[in-house]
Amino acid sequence: MGSATEYNRRDIFKRAAAVTVLAAGGGSLLAACAGGTGGSSDAKSSSSTGTGSATNPFGVKASDPLDVVIFKGGYGDDYAKAFEDMYKKTYSGATISHLGTQDISPKLQPRFNAGNPPDVVDDSGAQQMKIDVLAGADQLTDLSVLLDAPYLDDPSKKIRDVLLPGTIEQGTINGKMYSLNYVYTVYGLWYSNKLFKEKGWAVPKTWDDFITLCGTIKAAGIAPFAHQGKYPYYANYVILDLIAKQGGLDLVKKIDACDPTAWDDPAVLAGVSAFYKIMAGDFLLPGTNGMTHTESQTAWCQGKAAFIPSGSWLENEMIKVTPADFDMAFLPIPSLSGDKLPPTAVRAGAGEPFIVPSKGKNKNGGLEFLRMMLTKEGSGKFAAAANSLTVLKDGIGADVVLKPGTKSSSVAVTAAGTGTFNFTYPDLQTAFDTELQNATNELVNKRISPADWVARGKAATSKKV
């Protein structure tokens, strides 16, 4: 959600590798999922077990240890240490165990299978434990109790009242919220404002303008486009955004629902065909199809490519190798003729899922940890440490200075207004997502056509975990 080890994040990333790890590391969770419906069968696993009060709604005991595991990817884990300091101020007797790692599934699956999971987990990265698998195995706490808890900054409000639109839905499976997607992530193309100013290149507003500019960039001796080839979901950010803007929100919902008729919509072929012009024009950075996220992003930071797709974790993830005067900037996917969504529309929404395992020894403390994250203090600490926004409404104060890329993405979200969209299938339809990534890998290597990609996408809708 991302970042990281890949991947990242995200994303957030993600997917095929996570499934492989789950299958290889011990089959109990997958076996439980095979017949699961995504709901908890144990009432105790979906609510706090302590005696609560207005100031301590989950009944947290001050002396109970808290076990925290954080995906140490694009956002690092310093922000989580700041949250832990906040927790200690209230629960001074608590001993906090902190693990920052990119190996989420290898580290945690044995603990889940043994009934000894952490109390709170940032479950992200290439080796993320899949939320749908965990929910189907009754391993997650229903976070409805968090949503109905008082907002610390204004107890007259509930947590659900201060979250940005889509946050609850992004973590909901079969009517229950199992993950708090904490980071408000923006997806699209990224470029160096310094490079564009030096070359006198105008930022494209339409896809036709983009492809024309790619020709100009190539003639200047720079690769127009790089992507994180070993992790095809990055390229899917572009393809699916083109499709979403062309086909509209109803098509987005049908794709998320794995509705096979979605793939008969002309917008799907139009979107992937537009993307394929990058390969047809030989606009890819040489070797990018085999690069990891860090390899391709480093080459981009070095000026070897003009555009790269990613989420808004990119700036923080590459902060150590980005030139000081790079002036990173964000661009929503340029529009196609006949789009149903406006040119300013952008994929944006809640990402970086935090979970509270149902069998954690101090899951009440885990819930309270999340409640503290959802304060202006917590949101501000995250923004300062991770250069990204959170899902808390108006969560960033004027005292927080954002870096150029983060500021640029924030401006784009403001310009989009209500014209934002997001896809849930990468988190909630694991098998489908894996198949779609595989098809995209074939597409960028020009081993299949756009029409073949559409056919494979349609066939993938029948894939279930």
From TrEMBL:
Protein name: Carbohydrate ABC transporter, N-acetylglucosamine/diacetylchitobiose-binding protein
Extent of the signal sequence: 1-31
InterPro entries registered for this protein in UniProt: Bact_solute-bd_prot1, Chitin_NgcE, SBP, TAT_signal
Compartments where found: Cell envelope
Major site of localization recorded for this protein: other
Highest classification ranks of the organism: Bacteria, Bacillati, Actinomycetota, Actinomycetes, Kitasatosporales
Any Pfam family hit: SBP_bac_1
Organism of this sequence: Streptomyces tateyamensis
Classification via SUPFAM superfamilies: Periplasmic binding protein-like II
Keywords associated with the record: Signal, Transport
Similarity remark: Belongs to the bacterial solute-binding protein 1 family.
Source taxon at top rank: Bacteria
